[in-house]
C-alpha cells in the first residue's frame, strides 16, 4: 500500500519526460486505447470551441448551453485530457507507479462532476425552457426534476468519494470498500438511466403539443428527440458494462474497449446535439397570452441551423493494456 501523502517511493530522476519512449505502445491493445482516448478528447475540444463561437452565444436558445452546460463540457474536456496524458506517462515510465492512480482519481472526480452537470441540463434546463415556451408551469414536473437532481447529486458524491478512496489507498480485493463500489456504481448508473428516461418523457410530453401548435418547428423537435436518444444510449451502455462487471461475467478486452468508448462518443455527441437544439430559430417564437398564435421575435439576429468502469486495477495486476480504467 502506498503512503497516503507520499509518492510511493519515486525518485526525482524519474519525473522528467524522456526524449523518447522506447517500447511505448508496443502492445496493439495499449495503442488502440490511447488513440481512442485522443479521439474522444478531440471531440470534446471541438464541442467546446463550437460552444464558444459567437453564433451560439447569441442564439435564441442560448440558455440551454449556459453555465451548467459549459461546466459539464469543461469537466469532460479536462478529464479526458488527464486520461490520455496518464496513459502516455505510464507508457514512458514517467513518475512513480502510484502516480498513475493519482491521475485516475483526477479523472474520476472530473468525469463524475461532468456527468451530474450534463444531467442537470437535460433534466432541468431543457424541461424548464420547453415549459416556459408553452406559457405555463408544470409544478409537478419541476418537483420531480428537483428530487432527481438531489438524489443523483448525493449518489455522485458517494460514488466519487468511494472510488477515489479505493484508488488513493490502492485497496486490496478483500477490502469492504472495493466490494461496495461496483454495487454503488450499478445503483448510480441505474438511477441515472431512470432519470434520463423520465426527463425525456417530460420533454416529449411538452414538446409534442408545442410542435402541433407551431410553437416548435419539426426540425427542432427532431433535434430534441435525437439528443434524448443519444443520451439514453450512452447511459445504457455504461449501465450494462457496470452490471457485467458486478456479475464478473465479462473478461474480453475488446468488449470493454468497444462498448466503453462507444459510450464516450455518444456522450460527446449528446453535448454536441445540445448546441444544435439551442441554435434553432424556433426558440424565438413566443406564445400569445390566451391564444394559440405565435409571434416571431424580431430582436434576435437570424441564425443558421446548422470511459475504467467500476473495476479497479491494482499494482499487482495492472497491465499496460486492458479495460479502460477511467470512471465513466
UniProtKB/TrEMBL annotation:
Keywords for this protein: Membrane, Transmembrane, Transmembrane helix
Transmembrane regions: 31-52, 64-89, 101-123, 143-162, 186-208, 220-247, 253-278
Name of the protein: Integral membrane protein
Amino acid at each position: 500500500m502506498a503512503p497516503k501523502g507520499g509518492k510511493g517511493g519515486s525518485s526525482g530522476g524519474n519525473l522528467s519526460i524522456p526524449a523518447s519512449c522506447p517500447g511505448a505502445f508496443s502492445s496493439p491493445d495499449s495503442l488502440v486505447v490511447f488513440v481512442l482516448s485522443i479521439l474522444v478528447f478531440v471531440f470534446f475540444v471541438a464541442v467546446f470551441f463550437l460552444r464558444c463561437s459567437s453564433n451560439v452565444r447569441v442564439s435564441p436558445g442560448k440558455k440551454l448551453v449556459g453555465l451548467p452546460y459549459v461546466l459539464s463540457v469543461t469537466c469532460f474536456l479536462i478529464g479526458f485530457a488527464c486520461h490520455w496524458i496518464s496513459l502516455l506517462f505510464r507508457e514512458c515510465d514517467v513518475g512513480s507507479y502510484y502516480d498513475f492512480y493519482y491521475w485516475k482519481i483526477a479523472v474520476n472526480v472530473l468525469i463524475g462532476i461532468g456527468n451530474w452537470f450534463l444531467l442537470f441540463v437535460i433534466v432541468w434546463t431543457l424541461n424548464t425552457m420547453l415549459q416556459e415556451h408553452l406559457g405555463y408551469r408544470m409544478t409537478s414536473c419541476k418537483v420531480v426534476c428537483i428530487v432527481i437532481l438531489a438524489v443523483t447529486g448525493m449518489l455522485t458524491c458517494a460514488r466519487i468519494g468511494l472510488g477515489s478512496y479505493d484508488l488513493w489507498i490502492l485497496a486490496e480485493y478483500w477490502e469492504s470498500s472495493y466490494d461496495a463500489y461496483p454495487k454503488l456504481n450499478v445503483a448510480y448508473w441505474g438511477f441515472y438511466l431512470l432519470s434520463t428516461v423520465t426527463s425525456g418523457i417530460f420533454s416529449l410530453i411538452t414538446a409534442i403539443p408545442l410542435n402541433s401548435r407551431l410553437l416548435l418547428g419539426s426540425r427542432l423537435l427532431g433535434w430534441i428527440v435525437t439528443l434524448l436518444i443519444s443520451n439514453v444510449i450512452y447511459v445504457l451502455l455504461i449501465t450494462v458494462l457496470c452490471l457485467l462487471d458486478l456479475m464478473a461475467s465479462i473478461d474480453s478486452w475488446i468488449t470493454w474497449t468497444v462498448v466503453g468508448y462507444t459510450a464516450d462518443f455518444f456522450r460527446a455527441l449528446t453535448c454536441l446535439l445540445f448546441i444544435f437544439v439551442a441554435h434553432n430559430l424556433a426558440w424565438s417564437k413566443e406564445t400569445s397570452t390566451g391564444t394559440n398564435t405565435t409571434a416571431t421575435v424580431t430582436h434576435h439576429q437570424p441564425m443558421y441551423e446548422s470511459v475504467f468502469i467500476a473495476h479497479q486495477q491494482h499494482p499487482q495486476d495492472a497491465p499496460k493494456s486492458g479495460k479502460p480504467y477511467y470512471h465513466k
